[in-house]
Specification:
This protein has 173 residues and is of the alpha/beta class. It folds into two domains: 32 residues; 131 residues, Lipoprotein like domain (Double Stranded RNA Binding Domain). The protein is built from three helices and five strands; from the N terminus they run αβαββββα. The protein has a five-stranded mixed sheet, with helices on one face. Strand 3 and strand 4 form a beta hairpin.
């Protein structure tokens, strides 16, 4: 009885290891990367970051994301440059209540920025994040807090998108 259990255990363990190995090969073969883990080109390993407001939340988030991706930030001007031009938050009406009050908005957070490779010309990019926002006038205090949280989340996603774009730029052309 014991030999049977041990043999069954070995078969199960071998089968499990085979399935795990096959899954890892499939994931790595399709180019899967962990979120917020981007391989930036060597031309962007050292970067000069400029912004209209060096102390804004977006600039802080982009700086943090760049450091997490092993990009060295410098004040030198003879290296690649990332210039955050402006960011804006707007909203568009999506639907109304039968009373005529606005029921739902679409929040649009947009960031315009340029990337200048070393010895290259600047190229302009835009990161745009959209979110739906339900507006119930009976819960005005909770809605202002929800709006703050949505805006913060949209800034984080925009910062991630900027770093992702930086990692995808082909400077060989």
């Amino acid at each position: 009885m014991r030999k049977y259990q041990f043999a069954h255990f070995l078969k199960f363990r071998t089968f499990s290891a085979t399935i795990l190995l096959a899954a890892l090969i499939n994931i790595s073969g399709c180019g899967f990367h962990l979120q917020s883990s981007y391989l930036t080109p060597p031309e962007f390993s050292t970067l000069h970051l400029t912004s209209q407001d060096q102390y804004s939340e977006l600039t802080r988030l982009v700086r943090e994301r760049l450091r997490l991706n092993s990009v060295t930030l410098t004040d030198k001007t003879n290296v690649a440059e990332l210039n955050l031009l402006n960011d804006s938050l707007s909203r568009a009406t999506l639907s109304f209540y039968p009373t005529g009050n606005v029921a739902e908005y679409e929040l649009i957070y947009q960031v315009n920025y340029t990337v200048t490779p070393p010895d290259g010309d600047p190229k302009e990019y835009k990161a745009e994040i959209r979110r739906d926002y339900l507006d119930d006038p009976r819960t005005a205090l909770a809605k202002s807090r929800e709006m703050e949280l949505l805006t913060k989340e949209m800034r984080i996603q925009a910062a991630d998108k900027i770093v992702q774009t930086l990692a995808s730029i082909d400077v060989s052309n």
